[in-house]
Amino acid sequence: MLQLCLTTGESLILKELPARKFKGQQIPGSSLYMTERDNYSIAIHLYSHPLFKLSLRQFRFRQNTRVIIKEQNDWLRLEVSISGKVIFLGKDGETTQLNPGQYHLTRQTFYASDFQSEESTHSLVIYYSDLLLEGIGSIQAIVECPPRPTAHEIMDMVHEMLKCPYNEDTRSFYYANKVREILFSHAVSLPVALPGELSKDQVAAMYEADRIMANNLDGQITIPELARKLGTNFVTLKKNYEKVFGIGIFPRMMQRKMEHIQRLLESTNLPLKEIADQAGYQTLPGFINAFRKRFKVTPKEWRKRRRGL
């Protein structure tokens, strides 16, 4: 577990709490560690495996704050910023800023992070043991790298892991495959070219839109509501989202929703009505018709085929 303290010397003691009581985003199957005071709130979800670890970090401070962080080990660390920006300061005084939609690779074990007032930051950290890297033959090939834009397929896998539908028996196998797949995508992906006419803040807003959309596949938030939440308008949101992700925001929302439905059909025994409710459909026939229109087969038949029945 991380060791955290403020520049005043005050230690931030994380206490383990029941994860089921946490209302926000979390890693399914993880342990929850929290500390909360009037002027800050920190929640860290940790999923441990002998070969890798997953950590979802959520920080919020009421004023600009510097936190001194000591990692538990020197495993290779891939950190993806989901929302909010964080500034890292190393031992040599070098400053690195990780913006929403960016990631970096590092083995740095002792550093400081600056958090901005009232800005909630979320990041997913994947720790790769040397044993895992040796097993896939990449311990020499995969090296530390500074922040870079996250390829869309990597960001999709991040959101998928945070919605892992598998039970305890298969969850570890699922995560083990995903962390390898993310590392492979890092190794082979071409550099992401972001639209030069958009500012860093505008690009960050589109990644925030993508995060909110990924967390609200039940239809509880509309695109106009999403635009208002981001302090922009419907037209600008649609235009900028397509510039950053190369796909319209509504087609992307539907694509994500249907992919999530497929995972639920394949990996769970939930009744179709419950899956329809989770996907935001008002009626079961409406859900079945939408699924059949997209895949040319009913959800029930799709489930049977995937399970070889």
State the domain count.
2
3D shape:
globular
Secondary structure category: alpha+beta
Query: How confident is the prediction overall: mean pLDDT?
Result: 90
Question: How is the main sheet built?
Answer: 8 strands, antiparallel
> Helix amount, in percent?
25-40%
The total strand number stands at: 14
Task: Please characterize this protein's 3D structure.
With 309 residues, this protein is α+β, with helices and mostly antiparallel strands. It folds into two domains: 3-188, Sandwich (Jelly Rolls); 200-306, Arc Repressor Mutant, subunit A. It is 38% helix and 26% strand. The protein is built from ten helices and 14 strands. It has helices at 130-135, 152-161, 168-188, 200-214, 223-229, 234-245, 249-267, 272-278, 284-295, 299-306; strands spanning 3-6, 11-12, 15-17, 31-37, 40-48, 52-61, 65-70, 76-83, 86-89, 95-98, 102-106, 110-115, 121-128, 145-149. It has an eight-stranded antiparallel β-sheet with strand order 3-4-5-6-13-8-11-14. Strands 2-1-7-12-9-10 form a six-stranded antiparallel β-sheet, with no helix packed on it. A hairpin with a 5-residue loop joins strand 9 and strand 10 (95-98). The longest helix has 21 residues, at 168-188.
Structure in a nutshell:
The chain has 309 residues and is α+β, with helices and mostly antiparallel strands. The protein folds into two domains: 3-188, Jelly Rolls (Sandwich); 200-306, Homeodomain-like (Arc Repressor Mutant, subunit A). Helices cover 38% and strands 26% of the residues.
Topology:
Blueprint: E1 3-6, E2 11-12, E3 15-17, E4 31-37, E5 40-48, E6 52-61, E7 65-70, E8 76-83, E9 86-89, E10 95-98, E11 102-106, E12 110-115, E13 121-128, H1 130-135, E14 145-149, H2 152-161, H3 168-188, H4 200-214, H5 223-229, H6 234-245, H7 249-267, H8 272-278, H9 284-295, H10 299-306
Antiparallel strand pairs: 1-2, 1-7, 3-4, 4-5, 5-6, 6-13, 7-12, 8-11, 8-13, 9-10, 9-12, 11-14
